[in-house]
Fold this sequence. Notes:
This protein has about 100 residues and is mostly helical.
Amino acid sequence: MSRSTSEAMSAVVAGCNALTVKPFNHTFAEPNHFSERIARNVSLIISGESYVNQVADPSAGSYFIENLTLKLADAAWELFLQLEKKGELFLHLKTGLFRRK
């Protein structure tokens, strides 16, 4: 339930236009009544409790989200600069640089 709620809330905050919450066990088993009910309730709770479906951009002006985005972009740029300075891409694939970060 937590994973489905987190995934759904992330999609809504990111600006999705439509959302379908799949039952938690749809990838490894035939969904049953319980899992389908939980999936349905996740979207009902998100819209009914947080009202994110009532605003155009739920994260607009959010310092926290803007700050996280900036930190992510800065870290990615720094990694790119390090990679560019060191040179060969295939060498980094062999040494595992991409997996460590």
